[in-house]
Specification:
Elements (H helix, E strand, L loop, with lengths): L4 H10 L8 E5 L2 E5 L4 H8 L13 E5 L8 H16 L5 E3 L4 H7 L8 E4 L13 E4 L2 H10 L1 E5 L3 E7 L8 H12 L8 E5 L1 H4 L3 H9 L8 E4 L3 H8 L19 E6 L6 E3 L7 E3 H4 L6 E5 H4 L2 H11 L9 E5 L3 H10 L1 H7 L3 E2 L20 E4 L15 E4 L2 H10 L11
Parallel strand pairs: 2-3, 2-5, 3-4, 5-6, 8-9, 8-11, 9-10, 14-15, 14-17, 15-16, 17-18
Antiparallel strand pairs: 1-7, 12-13
Helix pairs in contact: 2-5, 6-8, 12-14, 12-15
This protein binds 3-isopropylmalic acid and iron/sulfur cluster (SF4).
3-isopropylmalic acid (IPM) binds next to loops.
């Protein structure tokens, strides 16, 4: 009987012939610790008690991203602690102020097809766009991983999601994943793998594919996987990565569920307060007044996100009285968007450009919402209190929808744009 990508990757990393449901010790190729759930939580305290220390520091990546730039002394202390801990243990792969960890992991070449990448952040699953078994784990589990170089995992069953057809103009990958979440639900894929295939997936850039795998966890999924194709190969070559073993699901692999969608008939989607699966067509919600628009995060702050937003606002001004915050998902995206003029176009429209950070997305600093305010955001979570006041409302949408809406100060359908 054929195997899925998950079964093949975990079989290779365990040395066993595994199938969905099996539990096995699996070697971990890259362990990512972020500043919020990394060293400062149990790990620094208990690691010295383990005779092993860190099994292989080359496999450990530490990224300060939630508290950078620090907005309080406490946050600065956490970043300093994370930095000092990494230095004490000789960890070369330490990054700070570079942007959200998942974007940094991909950009710095730490996510490789056919490998197991585990991180102390739930959106680690974004790495599945590069054909890696990438997933979030807790701090205690991470302590075991860095000291043993392995962990035990149950091989997940796989839900196959096929997106056929081709996206209409201004309909994006974010709309595809919001529509998928609407059908599967915020817990419908608990401990499953979701494999995304189809012409509309293949047509996406790697940047855009990452918006989809990033939100696999918003359906409860362990991993979100996509095939390694020539676009992924080019992305990796650009990072100097040429040798790896990519795995592909067999034609006769077994799936626990198969969902098929048509991208050609998809319209812009929006997740309404206060659940990520409270998804509706924008045209059913539009005209709702919005106070703050946010273009950023590891879900919607990549270059192609900024570029489509800049193309929409070019030569225009955002609505009076609203805020349009833009935070590139990494330092290198910031540089590229600065050099290309994309950031300048956004700024000229009235956007406020912020440093690459998690802060706005997770309500730790920058862009906090006051009571009764509404935010339309390209990020991935909209639960109560996520971005500031518990009396604020957060709507999740694509970069095109956020940009088109910022021009009007209300939720607007980008497909209504007159060229
Ligand atoms: C690390 C943690 C605070 C959280 C996560 O694990 O995803 C955060 O990054 C988020 O997006 O909610
Ligand atoms: S940008 Fe948001 S979703 Fe991504 S890692 Fe940071 S806090 Fe989490």
């Amino acid at each position: 009987m054929g195997k899925t990508m998950s079964e093949k990757i975990l079989s290779a990393k365990s040395g066993l012939d595994l199938k969905a449901g099996d539990i096995a010790w699996v070697s971990v190729d890259k362990a990512m610790l972020d500043d919020i759930l990394g060293p400062r939580v149990q790990i620094a305290e208990h690691l010295p008690k383990l005779s092993t220390g860190i099994k292989n520091v080359d496999n450990v990546v530490v990224i300060s991203d939630h508290y950078t730039p620090p907005a309080t002394v406490k946050q600065a202390e956490i970043v300093k602690f994370t930095r000092d801990w990494s230095k004490e243990y000789g960890i070369q792969n330490y990054y700070e102020f570079k942007g959200p960890c998942h974007q940094v992991m991909a950009e710095e070449g730490h996510v490789v097809p056919g490998t197991v990448v585990l991180g102390t952040d739930s959106h680690t699953c974004m790495g599945g766009a590069l054909g890696a078994f990438a997933s979030g784990v807790g701090s205690t589990e991470m302590l075991g991983i860095i000291s043993q170089g392995k962990t035990w995992l149950k091989v997940p069953e796989t839900i196959l999601v096929e997106w056929a057809g081709s996206l209409p103009q201004y309909v994006m990958a974010k709309d595809m994943v919001l529509h998928t979440i609407k059908h599967i639900g915020h817990a419908g894929a608990t401990y499953k793998a979701i494999e995304f295939i189809g012409d509309a997936i293949d047509a996406l850039s790697v940047d855009q594919r990452m918006a989809i795998t990033n939100m696999a966890v918003e359906m409860g999924a362990k991993v979100g996987l996509m095939r390694v194709d020539e676009k992924v190969e080019m992305y990796l070559q650009d990072k100097g990565i040429f040798s790896y073993e990519a795995f592909y699901s067999d034609p006769d692999a077994t799936y626990c569920q198969v969902l098929r969608f048509d991208a050609s008939s998809l319209s812009p989607q929006v997740a309404c307060p206060h659940e990520v699966d409270n998804v509706h067509d924008v045209r059913a919600i539009k005209d709702k007044a919005i106070d703050q628009f946010y273009l950023g995060s590891c879900t919607g702050g990549r270059y192609s996100d900024l570029e489509i937003a800049a193309n929409i606002v070019k030569g225009k001004k955002i609505a009076k009285g609203v805020r349009f915050l833009v935070s590139p998902a990494s330092q290198s995206i910031w540089e590229k968007a600065s050099q290309s003029g994309v950031l300048g176009t956004l700024a000229k429209s009235g956007a406020t450009i912020l440093a690459p950070t998690c802060g706005v997305c997770v309500g730790l600093h920058s862009g906090l919402l006051a009571a009764k305010e509404r935010c339309l955001s390209t990020s991935n979570r909209n639960f109560i209190g996520r971005m500031g006041s518990t009396e604020a409302e957060i709507y999740l949408a694509s970069p095109a929808t956020v940009a088109a809406s910022a021009l009007k100060g209300i939720i607007a359908d980008p497909c209504d744009i007159k060229e």
